[in-house]
Amino acid sequence: DLIVKPGLINLDFADINTILSKAGRAMMGSGQAAGANRAEEAAYAAMSTPLLGDLPTEHATGLLVTIRGGEDMTLYEVDTIMGVIRDTVAESANVIFGTCYDPSIEGSIHVSVIVSGIKMDQFTPPAGKVRKTAADSDVPTTTTTTDEPAKESTGLFGFFKL
């Protein structure tokens, strides 16, 4: 929403490109909170979401943070959120954030983060979310070899190799 809707502090596609380009893998987290400590709670929830698993965020090279709140959200709360998030990443990490008012969530704050620069050897997937592979199966498999060179093709937007 922050890219297509005007906000207090706007984000654009250049910000997304800055965080995601040449940064390795990325993960996303989000959190929402209401009440007296909503800013701090939403920030902690976003950085400890199950989507991030046991990702050591101190190794991240980039963070894109979006903060949405009702018109009762203050800049002090935005500063609190960014302080919590900044404390969980390396000083060298590139952190870009944007904020906007959303009257539909009056009384609460929603924080979303995209953490980039993740090396897969630093990541432990969330428990219960690991898919079984053919190598883990009890079903016998056979391997066929050929003298033909493998053909390399790219799929949608060059992201998926076939």
From TrEMBL:
Source superkingdom: Eukaryota
Record's keyword terms, sorted: GTP-binding, Nucleotide-binding
Gene3D superfamilies membership: Tubulin/FtsZ, C-terminal domain (3.30.1330.20)
GO biological process assignments: cell division
All residue ranges annotated as the Tubulin/FtsZ 2-layer sandwich domain in the record: 9-127
Keyword Transmembrane attached: no
Keyword check for Coiled coil: no
GO cellular component assignments: cell division site; cytoplasm
A single MF term (Gene Ontology): GTPase activity
Pfam families cross-referenced by the UniProt entry: FtsZ_C
Disordered: region residues: 128-151
Name of protein: Tubulin/FtsZ 2-layer sandwich domain-containing protein
Organism, as annotated: Aphanomyces astaci
Taxon lineage: Eukaryota, Sar, Stramenopiles, Oomycota, Saprolegniomycetes
